Amino acid sequence: MRYDAVLFDLDGTLTASAPGIFGSVQHALMQLGYPPLEDSKLPGFVGPPLYESFERIAGLDASQAEQAVAAYREHYEDSGLFRATVYEGIPNLLRQLRAQGVYVALASAKPIALAHRVLEHFGLTRFFDRVIGADPGRRESDKQSLLQDALPARYERAAMVGDRRYDMEAAKALGLDAVGAAWGYGTEAELREAGADAVAHTVGEAARYLCGEDAPAPRGFFISIEGLDGCGKTTQMNAVAAHAAARGYAVVTTREPGGAPVSEEIRRLVLDPEKSMCAQTEALLYAAARAEHVRQVIRPALEKGKIVLCDRFVDSSIAYQGGGRELGMEQVMAINAMAVGGTMPDLTLLFLVDARTAFLRRSNATALDRLERAGEAFFQRVYDAYARLAQSGGERFRCIDACRDIDAVTADACAHMDRLLAQR
Ligand code: TYD
């Protein structure tokens, strides 16, 4: 282990927070009757103390700057705070450090309550042993005293990761290693001049530096999305993907049948309305497509620590071929054992709409594939099989009533995923 304690800055290091910060700066200036700043001047506000930036960049005097900071904070706490995204790779870097038993702390110049709200909002709280921010009432805390407070009582070797010169200077003043986060708002030159011991251009590079080159990547998360044709699962999958990406996860979205070149060819065959085939052939083709997809796409992505969101997986075969085509759920599970080879979803989101509603939604579609042309009785059997799977399949299944408005359905789906992510 290289370090036994690692301290992080927040804005520009863990989160890309510029959009919210810029909006609140312009809002504050407007409220006080000053003209808005040119876009090119705004990046200077991320990182350094706000009072100083309002003086130095916007040319305000001390008392004007104080008013501007008050107006800024009001707007920022209201809406700016959450107009941010977590940099890709951050949750996995934090997981890796925790797995190595490293003490992890946050040292932010943000008021402490806001720092907590941001960590909570993005699901990051659980990774931190200690969270240090500016105390209410204090004008602005200098970085060095924040770092001092964030350090554990005892440590051998500690590093500070930050994206601005203030972070590097404070780290060096305390005898810590300074790791520059060049993915944030400072430049590599700024970080080096301020004494950075290392500069990482991506979060992955920082992870290799902090955790060691051959530290194993934490395993990713496999989430399958299931439901009747017409349940809206593709729309929901995209919304869930965006939610995960904003939390700093690398996301792969894929689908079955398909997802890999050979599997896409099988998809064309199996869904072709011109072809007729027996139910057994159909079931085996889906399984064959899956075997390839698991090995070419799903496993490699999970090994790299990504979230795999899969539009249909083995439960589709169990419900459609096992239930719909009446091959029997057990039998279809059995022929799929070799295809999945133990790679099963950590979470299955099952979007439930009744067979009739799904049928009505589908009948608005123009070109129906071979499966979608099956009758209502077929889809009722598929629905029943899904319901039985969810009942007996235990923990992995989360049923979501997909007859409600899209946003309510998305909120449920994202909450289920957040709970899964919080487990590791
Ligand atoms: P899907 O890609 O969800 O359809 P679309 O993109 O047209 O909305 O699925 C294609 C069809 O394949 C769908 O009717 C369900 C069926 N299917 C099975 O019958 N068994 C399976 O194992 C899979 C993965 C899909």
TrEMBL record:
Alphabetic keyword roster: ATP-binding, Kinase, Nucleotide biosynthesis, Nucleotide-binding, Transferase
Task performed by this protein: Phosphorylation of dTMP to form dTDP in both de novo and salvage pathways of dTTP synthesis.
Pfam families tied to this protein: HAD_2 (PF13419), Thymidylate_kin (PF02223)
Protein name, entry field: Thymidylate kinase
Enzyme class: transferase
UniProt EC number: 2.7.4.9
GO cellular component, one term: cytosol
Family listed: Belongs to the thymidylate kinase family.
Gene name for this UniProt entry: tmk
Domain Thymidylate kinase-like: 225-411
SUPFAM superfamilies: HAD-like, P-loop containing nucleoside triphosphate hydrolases
GO terms assigned for molecular function: ATP binding; dTMP kinase activity; protein tyrosine kinase activity
Phylogenetic lineage: Bacteria, Bacillati, Bacillota, Clostridia, Candidatus Avichristensenella
NCBIfam families, per database record: DTMP_kinase
Catalytic activity: dTMP + ATP = dTDP + ADP
Positions contributing to ATP binding: 227-234
InterPro entries: HAD-like_hydrolase_sf, HAD-like_sf, HAD_2, HAD_sf, P-loop_NTPase, PGP-like_dom2, Thymidylate_kin-like_dom, Thymidylate_kin_CS
GO biological process, one term: dTDP biosynthetic process
